[in-house]
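#lab-general

N.A. 3:47 PM
ok so I finally got the sequence cleaned up, no stray characters, all 373 residues accounted for. can someone with queue access submit it? mine expired

B.Y. 3:52 PM
send it over

N.A. 3:53 PM
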Amino acid sequence: MRVLELLVSTELGGGPAHVRDLATLLPSDEFQVTVAGPAGGPYAEIFSALGGGFVDLPLDRLAPGMLRRLERVVRERGIDVIHSHGKGAGLYGRLAARRLGIPAVHTFHGIHYRGYPIGLRWGYLAMERWLAGRTAAIVHVSESQARGAEPLGLAPAGPTHVIPNGIDIARLARLVSGSPISRRALGVADDAFVIGTVARFDPVKGLDVLLEAFARVSHALPRATLVLIGDGPEAGRLRAAAATLGVGARVVWAGAVPDAARALPAMDVYASASRGEGLPLGLLEAMACGRPVVATSVSGHVDAVEEGATGALVPAGDAAALGDALLGLARDETTARAWGEAGRRRASRLFSATRMVAEVAAVYRKVRATAGV
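B.Y. 4:20 PM
back already:
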């Protein structure tokens, strides 16, 4: 079965990592995976080395002739199923599949629209509802995301599947043991209490709130350090905010780091202040590495974190609650250690890439058989 995975980015991030796991872990004797998306990011080279190869298509923007270019790729490569990830990829992929008479699968990696102006917001939702009616299978990456999507018309009963994100735990173990990023490499003192996160610097990630929370922590705990791994359009504003809060010297701006999970063992606690999620891979990787987690009680997080057992959940946007939860772990090493070990077991049991890939493969088989391809 020839599958075309469509992405809106090949930069470091959860969507491309998710597709990498699909492309490498789907049984090669049954599936051939080609990936298409914008060239230029580090994942483009990774996808190019895989069996089905990589096609440069800037699916992150509206461009004349893009639909025809995509249709040509589908015809030339004899594609049986199109699987899209992200808004632009979802639009082009489902239109092309409909025109060519092949099944389309679309995965929502978070449903982010609340920051749009009202007119654009409702226009986007109307378009997604229209596309949902023309999609053979819609995948939500967490139960909570699917529940939130239902009243929006983005989780119709027939084609909807909930397939929680998973991580390749064997690959993660190899990275962490084989090429770890140490505290010394990060410029962090050995005796520091390290709060860390891996995130795109985007408003939805709530890093401004995390900085406010860290200011509370650092005031009470001078040895606290915040490690931010990632980059993005909010970088300048976040650096300015850190300076205003008086914590600029206590924040490590590590930048976008390939295989950032290598730095997780250098952290004492993993924090995610997101205003909304699908099911973030960084948080799952932190749990798999035995890190206790403090996260906002939003979609995705509530599926991964077991309150009071593997971590703490706090209201989104509440810097005081986030800071207090982080301080609590700094002062209670026994609880932090117990939560980390429980998180490791939970990640292994519920959030493996092996399970995720098997469930996606079942969806591919089902939509292809139903379409009679």
